[in-house]
């Protein structure tokens, strides 16, 4: 008898052993396990619990690169999404060709695959892996697919292999038993583990079983559940794996609420990009620009409003920019995260108001070294802050990094960072953007004041009006036309 997944927090979740056995006892499931690197840790569970003959059509582990290339084709890297996809496509097609006619009416076929780099003997490599499952939800059904990227955090190879095996079982179980509840599936991926051992920083659902799934929401779910500190997706909604996207690229980040994206947001990014690209160690390189939204911002009013989140994602997409969702409220944590993704320079652009807040010591009481420790971490690597000026609404004074005031006991620290070039003033701004504030624009949208349209890019205005985002209500005459 197949165990149902618990419906409340009080119910006990099935163990890894129980999950593997439940899959083995489901006579509808039959498939292939293909694993490269870290041993055949996932299929081992299904062999060990019993009943594997009814589930496993084939188990393969092509460790030798020439053997792997001969089966799946050549790839630039062996631990990458491209190689994983080749494994899934090849093995699933092979299984269907061989078995569909004899048992296709009663069997839902699947292929599980992973390609992993576990800790090497010297402990010098990046420990991560790609994992996925391509499967039929029902016999004769079109294929559906789940792909994810994991970061293994244990210090010993044996522990990493163990954790990898558990995640793999969770994924196979989730695909076969929970595909109708993708959010619950995501929540179950670290059953039997915790984020001190494994992080999942990318997940993508595709195929007929997930035709109604918005992968942007699944990316948000990863961060909300704490499975990863950050997740990312492109302007077209495609899920991105951060370490691959940022690999060998300088990074420029702008943090904000983006409710909505205004002209000033894009001008801040443009002016910072111009200055950043002039740096000697950045010249001629392709800078990755990204807009970041923190979980603190998304939860500012309590629980996350999914429509509000999608509104922000859509207006950012209208600008052709990728979105980074992070749980790194403190800038030094964001800098540490980004520095682990690239060896190239990193820049964060922010307004003068945000820079003033950065020097408020109340944000660093949790650090033993206080604000000094935070700035030591923030500027530890090749990091710069580009400061966009702000108009003081009371005095009309232009506040820049040159005349910005911090508390007296931090003045020398601030001057030191400016003298070092860690804080750079942006003087190439568009003065017409300085009077634009997103909160003011949001208020105008909600109040039906049409002047908001001149303060956002045309394509952003079109999205807001088309989908009635941020409280927008079309004029009565427009409504009557429909």
Just give the CATH class of the largest domain.
Alpha Beta
Strand line-up of the largest beta sheet? 8-7-11-10-9-12-13-16
Overall geometry? globular
Number of domains: 2
Number of strands: 16
Count, helices: 18
**Mean pLDDT over the residues:** 92
Beta-sheet strand percentage? 15-25%
Poorly predicted runs: none
The CATH topology of the largest domain turns out to be Maf protein
Q: Largest sheet, if any?
A: 8 strands, mixed
How much helix is in the residues?
25-40%
CATH architecture annotation name of the largest domain? Alpha-Beta Complex
- State the distance separating the first and last CA atoms: 54 Å
Indicate the radius of gyration in whole angstroms: 25 Å
Q: By helix and strand content, what is the structural category?
A: alpha/beta
Query: For the record, what is the CATH homologous superfamily label of the largest domain?
Result: CinA-like
Protein name: Nicotinate-nucleotide adenylyltransferase
Description:
The structure is a single chain. The chain is of the alpha/beta class. The chain folds into two domains: 16-213, Maf protein (Alpha-Beta Complex); 244-433, Rossmann fold (3-Layer(aba) Sandwich), CATH 3.40.50. The protein contains 18 helices and 16 strands. It has helices spanning 16-25, 41-49, 65-72, 81-103, 157-177, 182-188, 215-224, 242-245, 263-277, 295-298, 306-318, 331-339, 352-358, 370-378, 411-419, 438-447, 458-467, 476-481, and strands spanning 29-36, 56-60, 108-117, 128-136, 143-152, 198-207, 230-233, 239-240, 251-255, 288-294, 323-326, 346-351, 383-388, 390-391, 398-399, 423-425. The strands form three sheets. An eight-stranded mixed beta sheet has the order 8-7-11-10-9-12-13-16, sandwiched between helices. It has a six-stranded mixed beta sheet with strand order 2-1-3-4-5-6, with helices on both faces. A hairpin with a 6-residue loop joins β14 and β15 (398-399). The longest helix has 23 residues, at 81-103. The radius of gyration is 25 Å and the shape is globular. The N and C termini lie far apart (54 Å).
